Amino acid sequence: xxxxxxxSDSAEMLVYHDKEWGIPKKKVSELFECLTLEIFQAxxxxxxxxxxxxxxxxxxxxxxxxxxSQFNDDDIERLMNDEAIIRNRAKIIAxxxxxxxxxxNDLVRLTWQQxxxxxxxxxxxxxxxxxxxxxxxxxxxxxxAGFKRVGPTTLYSYFQAVGVINDxxxxxxxxxxxxxxxxxxx
Length: 186
What we know:
two-stranded parallel ribbon, DNA-3-methyladenine glycosylase I
C-alpha cells in the first residue's frame, strides 16, 4: 500500500498518517487539540509531539476549552514543571489564550466556514510562497478572533491535520479515501 513518504519515519507516524492525519474533524476538542499540538510542534519534529501527546492530553484536560480557559499562573507553573510535555511558556500561554478565544468563537465554523464546509485538495506542488499567499487571509481571521501563535506554517499544518486541506500525496491510498469526506458538519 502506497503512503505519503513522511509516514514511514516511525511506527507512530505510520499510525498517525493512516488513522488521523487529514481526516475531517468537527468536534471542538479534536480541532483544539490539533491546533495546540501544531503550535507546540513549531521548531520541533512531529514525532516529538506524538511521543508527548498523552501527557498533553492529561495536562490540558483532554483539550476541554472551557477548563483550559480558566487556567491561571499556578497552572502555567505546573505545566512548566512537567517534563512529559514540551515546556515552552509562550506556547502554554498561547494555549490558554486560544481556549479563551474558543469560548468567544465557534472553532468549527472558524475552521470550516471559509471553505464552505468542504474539503479542498492541497497545494502539494506549490512552493512555500504560494502557500503563504493562500493562507494569509485565514491567518488574519484566526488572529482577528483572538488566537495566538497561528502563523502561516502552523495554520496550514492545522488545516492539513484536521482535514480541511487534503494534502495526502496523490498516489497515497488515503488521498482518495478521504477526498471530500467532510460530510454534514452543520
